Task: inverse folding
């Protein structure tokens, strides 16, 4: 059994997501460096064993808020052969900015985790365990670079969902961005109902509003960066709300209680086949890593 | 220090709520009996130390689904001086049926707890700890009977919210019934978006849809029994969804992150003053129990 040769990882932005990724890679015994404009975030990462450097190589992970994505590498040195990825919650705008700057060296990504907390104080090396991690495949994506990014996700315990930026943004509008807007409207309408309503609020209100406890600037940046798909997904929710209540309740219950069986399939390592896996609700699991032996060192 | 003389409690319906209440009262060292049409639920309660009997006295708690409320006591013997309460999630319809049958001996109640699980298998003696428990005060409510019901809620660790049935139903429409409908519509719209969307679904989708995992028959009975207030509350949510997203997000975040300071107040033990406490978002805490000494034994 040979050891998988893997490139170093450099994480730019050491808040909840970036700090957790760097810490998780340290735990996995990987070579990982990091940088953050905030000295306190750098100190917290260094205390977890992350090397601090402004010279980035290998897989460079942009773990900064969406509005900061285009300027995240300002003042830093990036190896000309580095593969660039990001953790942004919307993928089309990042492809248009960072992707335009780095061409086929850019592979977008989005781990489906994080909590309503933020900042380096919320660092959790176990954050990615069992999470889904979208890794984007565009028509011109270099597959070896895509594999490098997928391998990082697998290394911290995530499962990889191959997806195009456009399909990702449509999907997350439905399952992440609209829930934030519904949570906000639910909270505001309950406040309209008065202090008695808020005093009686319990589990269903707490669950239904949890995500709007997130930093409003972050949430607004996310929904505005994905305005079209979010508006479309919201319209579908509103249409369902016009159904007779018994059918609405029955239908919603059927979705959340359905059995999602899992079976192993082998697919050729090429773009169309990988995207078909993602579209079918499939994921790429840890076993890809052994398949990657001999692959990853050939690039970069 | 004298011991508070408290009446026995008889719980009719030993599913999640009733079974948990009976078990919690056993734990509190109280005299508690129970009954359920399902022998398996009776056996589970008996195993927790609940006496099984069809002869009910003291505080009789109807812990059955809303559609079964009017017939829950069929075939059972009820002491003519018993105080009747219930745990139903909607209060006007129960007041109209059970309240009509028992007159001023009926005091409606609603503990704001429970999970998406149901049935006696979901029994949890700690379910009420820290929960709010609405106890209804109507113009003709006998205050000593109201106190008996409030005392049962306090005995299992809940805080009591004095409220009229009408005000309760308006409030829970906003914080419980509408969240169930939003969860259903969110789940159905995500399913419309396809398997990829469901595969990427993570925390915000899970929280936003959690409550629609509940038994659909229970949820439908709840929203249909409170159709008017629920439709009004839903309309308020839809109105907020028309706000510009930055304002919507900011407003929702402000509601869920507001500090809810607590201060102690003393209020006269009379209906208007108690209802004013509830309307202001206040609760009655365990310390009322010492106040009840000498009070409770005088009635019933």
Result:
């Amino acid at each position: 059994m040979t050891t998988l040769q893997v490139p170093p990882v450099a994480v730019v932005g050491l808040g909840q997501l970036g700090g957790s990724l760097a810490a998780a890679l340290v735990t996995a015994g990987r070579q990982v460096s990091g940088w953050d404009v905030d000295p306190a975030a750098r100190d917290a990462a260094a205390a977890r064993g992350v090397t601090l450097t402004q010279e980035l190589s290998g897989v460079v992970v942009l773990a900064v808020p969406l509005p900061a994505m285009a300027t995240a590498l300002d003042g830093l040195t990036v190896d000309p052969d580095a593969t660039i990825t990001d953790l942004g919650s919307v993928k089309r705008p990042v492809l248009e900015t960072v992707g335009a700057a780095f061409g086929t060296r850019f592979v977008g990504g989005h781990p489906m985790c994080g909590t309503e907390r933020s900042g380096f104080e919320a660092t959790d090396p176990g954050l990615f365990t069992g999470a889904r991690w979208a890794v984007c495949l565009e028509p011109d994506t270099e597959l070896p670079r895509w594999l490098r990014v997928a391998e990082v996700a697998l290394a911290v315990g995530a499962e990889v969902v191959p997806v195009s930026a456009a399909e990702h943004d449509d999907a997350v509008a439905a399952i992440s961005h609209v829930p934030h807007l519904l949570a906000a409207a639910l909270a505001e309408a309950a406040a309209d109902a008065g202090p008695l309503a808020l005093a009686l609020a319990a589990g269903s209100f707490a669950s239904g509003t949890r995500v709007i406890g997130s930093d409003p600037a972050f949430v607004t940046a996310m929904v505005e960066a994905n305005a079209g798909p979010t508006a479309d997904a919201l319209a579908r929710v509103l249409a369902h709300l016009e159904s007779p209540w018994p059918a609405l309740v029955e239908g919603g219950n059927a979705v959340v209680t359905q059995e999602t069986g899992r079976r192993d399939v082998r697919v050729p390592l090429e773009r169309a086949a990988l995207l078909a896996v993602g579209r079918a609700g499939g994921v790429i699991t840890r076993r890809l890593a052994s398949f990657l032996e001999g692959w990853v060192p050939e690039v970069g």
In short: Chain A touches chain B through 88 residues (CB under 8 Å). Strands of chain A lie at 9-12, 32-35, 51-52, 55-56, 59-62, 77-78, 83-86, 109-111, 132-136, 159-163.
